[in-house]
Amino acid sequence: MNAGWLCIAGLGPGDPSMLTPEVTQALDQATDVVGYIPYVARVAPRAGLRLHPSDNRQEIARAQAALAMAAAGQRVVLVSSGDPGVFAMASAVFEALEAAPQWQQLDIRVLPGITAMLAAAARAGAPLGHDFCAINLSDNLKPATTIEARVRAAAAADFAMAFYNPRSVSRPDTFARILALLRETCEPERLVVFARAVGTPEERLRTVTLAEATPEMADMRTVVLVGNAATRRVGRFVYTPRAAR
Ligand code: SAH
């Protein structure tokens, strides 16, 4: 067994204060950091640390490269924003591992991070205080019909919802369709929190009703939280009661 290892780590939403000590320790011990360009840019350079930024949508190649380095005896941290298990690199590594039995005995650990929806919810108050679900609105890895079916089912079951990747330049209309679909099931007063760039200097939170929500309120740096039927305002906060009706 070689001394190499791979940590698949979450960097949190942005601010270093929201990085766990466990992840900081792994970065301190690493020889190599691998990840999407803006996430690797968050890691402070130091002597003896090689940075390997790569482009987006290269997840499997990036996972294979990280595994190959660990197999060669390097101490590798593969970084994601937020939590690595939430629409991020951890599943890509295990997908690569399924096809590479020779790497399955490596020292591989997943180090959690604060995911965007939890950082955003904490800023708003407690909008996810009762049952909720997280849905990725990107259609890169699943058909749009599946996304719409899941949003419909979640709204019908009165889950609060967190939408990741709500809107991008390549699919400007997805989020408009999702809002229209929510309006079929939810009342116009339903609260919607648009949380942009949480934990960074550009952070902005805006809470509106479903009637007031527009597609332009979201972009790729926004996580959108939709309350359940009981979600309400208290002072400057938004919260969902612990009990269901
Ligand atoms: N693994 C990440 C999610 C990656 S998907 C996590 O656990 O947070 C990328 C999406 O996450 C973005 O489109 C946005 O919806 C959300 N996101 C990531 N960082 C964010 C931040 N600082 N503020 C608001 N949303 C964020």
List the helices and strands and how they pair.
Layout: E1 5-10, H1 21-29, E2 32-36, H2 37-40, E3 50-54, H3 59-71, E4 75-80, H4 89-98, E5 107-111, H5 116-124, E6 125-126, E7 132-136, H6 144-156, E8 160-164, H7 174-185, E9 191-196, E10 204-209, E11 222-226, E12 232-234, E13 237-239
Parallel strand pairs: 1-4, 1-5, 2-3, 2-4, 6-13, 7-8
Antiparallel strand pairs: 8-11, 9-10, 9-11, 12-13
The protein binds S-adenosyl-L-homocysteine (SAH).
S-adenosyl-L-homocysteine binds next to helix 5, strand 9 and strand 11.
Give a verbal description of the structure.
The chain has helices at 21-29, 37-40, 59-71, 89-98, 116-124, 144-156, 174-185; strands at residues 5-10, 32-36, 50-54, 75-80, 107-111, 125-126, 132-136, 160-164, 191-196, 204-209, 222-226, 232-234, 237-239. It has 245 residues and is an alpha/beta fold. It is elongated. The strands form three sheets. Strands 3-2-4-1-5 form a five-stranded parallel β-sheet, with helices on both faces. A five-stranded mixed β-sheet has the order 7-8-11-9-10, sandwiched between helices. It contains seven helices and 13 strands. Bound molecules: S-adenosyl-L-homocysteine. S-adenosyl-L-homocysteine (SAH) binds next to helix 5, strand 9 and strand 11. S-adenosyl-L-homocysteine binds next to helix 5, strand 9 and strand 11.
